[in-house]
Design brief:
The complex is a heterodimer of chains A (113) and B (113). Chain A is mainly beta and 113 residues long. Chain A has no helices and eleven strands. In chain A, strands 2, 4, 5, 9, 10 and 11 form a six-stranded mixed β-sheet that branches. In chain A, strands 1-3-8-7-6 form a five-stranded antiparallel β-sheet, with no helix packed on it. Chain B is globular and about 40 Å long. The chains are: A mainly beta (113), B mainly beta (113).
């Protein structure tokens, strides 16, 4: 089955700096790659996603890049703010009927003032 | 914005007892899921459900687990005889179309003592 690796496990940046979180996946049939933000005690909240027919997607301060050949994808957050502090999970899915997500191990992002 | 709602938010139960976790998926969604997250770990897939039957289940989803959509709006997860290792946050999720965005609820925190 699919295996998703995520790095780093913790990341501390100063407010205004950029943060990059990287994930690799093993299943070449995976074609959908969402990123979720999880605040303490809450459910995962989708922040951006990308499908395998595109290489990059941007939404304001957040961008995701995908390299299907190398089987890795990355989350980029620019101009970080204290409210960006949370745990971020990448995930991968094959699509298809009721497709399941395989999650990475999470990155705890701390944005300091 | 439509959301997935879950009850209870927190339940404490004795080992061996039955537990039912309830979810109301987003109203026009057709695909339903349960995931769990043991404290400090990644989110893990349990089961997906479509057209009133299980589409896929993980190794975690053994004979002690069952799911049901009893009335066209609720989606439940039953654990027949809870074990200590069932202590986790259980997330319900739903999606409108297969392979499309999956939305998560806030979770039900289950503590087995």
């Amino acid at each position: 089955g699919e295996n998703v690796e995520q790095h780093p496990s913790t990341l501390s940046v100063q407010e205004g700096d950029s943060a990059v979180i990287k994930c690799t996946y093993s299943d070449s049939a995976s074609n959908y790659f969402p990123w979720y933000k999880q605040e303490l005690g809450k459910g995962p909240q989708l922040i951006i996603d990308i499908r395998s027919n595109v290489g990059e997607k941007k939404d304001q301060r957040i961008a995701v890049t995908l390299n299907k050949t190398a089987k890795h994808f990355s989350l980029h957050i620019t101009e970080t703010q204290p409210e960006d502090s949370a745990v971020y999970f990448c995930a991968a899915s094959r699509g298809g009927t009721a497709s399941k997500l395989t999650f990475g191990t999470g990155t705890r992002l701390q944005v300091t003032l | 914005e439509p959301e997935v709602t879950q009850t209870p938010s927190h339940q404490v139960t004795q080992m061996g007892q039955e537990v039912i976790l309830r979810c109301v998926p987003i109203s026009n969604h057709l695909y339903f899921y349960w995931y769990r997250q043991i404290l400090g770990q990644k989110v893990e897939f349990l089961v997906s459900f479509y057209n009133n039957e299980i589409s896929e289940k993980s190794e975690i989803f053994d004979d002690q687990f069952s799911v049901e959509r009893p009335d066209g709006s609720n989606f439940t997860l039953k654990i027949r005889s809870t074990k200590l290792e069932d202590s986790a946050m259980y997330f319900c999720a739903s999606s409108a179309i297969s392979g499309n965005t999956i939305y998560f609820g806030e979770g039900s925190w289950l503590t087995v003592v």
